[in-house]
Amino acid sequence: MIGREKEVRELNRLYDRDRAELVAVYGRRRVGKTYLIDETFSGRITFRHAGLSPADEDARGLLRAQLDHFYNSLILFGMEKSDKPDNWMDAFLLLEQFLQRIDDGSRQLVFLDELPWLDTPRSGFIRAFEGFWNNWGCHRKNLMVVVCGSANSWMTDRLINNHGGLYNRVTYEIKLSPFTLRECEAFFQYNRVRLSRYDIAQSYMIFGGIPYYLGYFDGEFSLAQNVDRIVFSRYAKLKDEYDRLFRSVFVNPDTEKAIVSFLATRNAGYTRKEITSKLGMSDGGRLSRNLNALIASDFIVKYVPFDMGKREEYYKVVDPFCLFYLHFASVMNGKSESFWQENVTAHSVVTWRGFAFENVCFNHIRQIKRALGVSGVMTSASAWSICEDDRKGTQIDLLLKRSDNVLNMCEIKYYSGEFTVKKKDYLTLLARQNLLMEKVGPKMAVRGTLITTYGLTQNEYSGVFTNVITLDDLFSE
Which of 30, 363, 407, 411 could form a disulfide with 212 if both were Cys (CB 3.0 to 4.6 A apart)? Predict the structure, then answer.
């Protein structure tokens, strides 16, 4: 298994403990939750079941389908045939009876995958699961129940932060994150896909660190050929992935899609007020739930830009695949099956790479801090602009405000060679530094920081950067 060392270590530690465990594993769709459990507990799973996607069923018959499917899973794992359950109370009673019948004192591991899908409208699933755990499961020292779900807001609100009968019942939680650049490199190497770090960074700009997507790469082809095969060809594997992604995670996916589409139009994102104004949505609890669900699913982040109060919270899209899809959706129609190969040097693609690399850096703040030697220093990261859009005024790609009274003003450049500071760039950067120094006052030092692919060419203007961080630094652990 690539990466996930900490998660595997923790899961095995929990398995070896002599106590009942209820473990929640959640994370973005396709990030590898099921694979993690399957590989970690290979040969040790007593019973497993995965919910049926609500997007694939008529809502009127979905509860019956879920119960029948659960019953069939019990039969497959050795339960004797009986009457099918009419509700989730009966279904969990069957599970309890089955586990008791086969109990020999050794560890019993129950794996319930896509748990949110089981909670269909008016099904009473949560109450039944609460009864299963509180009345029976938590009292059995040899029982470990692992539940997974891609609907992160459901996992956090309905299970982990439940204020009812399941309050504080989850004994351990794991939020599984996408691969880092380093883990992507290890994944490609394991699958005999040879790509330079320059191209691996580009693959991350498109697919993020999502193992499921990266698994479609074929080592016989170049990066551009693989992108065309996976995204732009007539029968591309991910042609419909964007819609599937939202349908599988959200109850009302059109609303979340509209929010993400709007946020993606500006690199720094938008305020809540701007979202309501542009989309015609009321600023209430429903919008909060929509935004929190997108944050929980790692599609967007909420941050406070430098020099703004907490009332000026911004929402920004950080999921690379969503950003890529929205930028190039108009050509994902099979009309040009070699679009990426034909446009690899086109201005539109080159411009997109610049913004996409900024997002790569935003997703690797930990590595940037390590390169700066400040891993242990409390730091807030944000984009910053003093204008209404990213085309005018003063815009800074990334600001790192550190608790040791240093402000790193980061300029991010994705180049095929070393970056050379020209006089015009030098004057622009000096003006930005001076503006920041006026904002922060004498207590905080402002340091020009370059984040680029292959380093900085030394000339009379290169001294504007105190720190230089390269692509190799972003590939650190």
Answer: 30
Section 352-373 average pLDDT: 95
Residue 40: phi and psi, rounded to 5, are: -65, -40
Task: Say how many C-beta atoms besides its own lie within 10 A of residue 378's C-beta.
Answer: 9
Residue 99: both structure tokens together: 């586990």
Helices (H), 77-192: 88-102, 115-118, 125-135, 152-154, 181-190
The CATH number given to whatever domain includes residue 391 is 3.40.1350
Backbone angles phi, psi at 211, to 5 degrees: -55, -40
Written as one letter, the residue type at 20 is: A
Beta bridge partners of 448: 409
Q: 5 in the Ramachandran plot: left (φ > 0), alpha (ψ -120 to 50) or beta?
A: alpha
Contact 180, 209 (CB under 8 A): yes
Residue 335 within a domain: no
Q: Which residue has the tokens 């530690």?
A: 13
Q: Which two tokens stand for residue 116?
A: 């949110």
Residues 119 and 167 in one domain: yes
- Tell me, yes or no, whether 39 and 133 share the same domain: yes
Task: Convert the pLDDT of each residue in 178-226 to its tens digit.
Answer: 999 999 999 999 999 999 999 999 999 999 999 999 999 999 999 999 9
- Residue 170 maps to a domain: yes
* 321 and 368, same domain (yes or no): no
Distance CA 424, CA 429 (A): 9
Return the bridge partners of 300, or none: 317
Q: Is residue 345 in a domain?
A: no
Instruction: For residue 273, count other CB atoms closer than 10 A to its CB.
Output: 12
- H-helix or E-strand containing 50? strand 47-50
User: Model confidence over 342-356: pLDDT tens digits?
Assistant: 999 999 999 999 999
% pLDDT > 90, the chain: 78
**Rg of the chain taking only CA atoms, in angstroms:** 25
pLDDT, the chain, mean: 92
- 276 and 411 in a single domain? The answer is no
Q: Say which CATH number the domain at 277 has.
A: 1.10.10.10
Contacts of 168 (CB under 8 A, 6+ apart): none
| β strands within 105-193, DSSP E | 108-113, 143-149, 172-176
Query: What band does 313 get if pLDDT is binned at 50, 70 and 90?
Result: confident
Q: Rounded to an integer, what distance in angstroms lies between the CA atom of residue 350 and that of residue 127? A: 53
Domain hosting 320: range is 241-326
Average pLDDT over residues 394-414: 92
Domain count across the chain = 3
Residue 62 gets which letter from DSSP?
Answer: H
How much is the average pLDDT of 84-109? 97
Is the same domain home to 38 and 139? yes
> What percent of the chain stands above pLDDT 70?
95
Q: What local confidence, expressed as pLDDT, does residue 334 receive?
A: 64
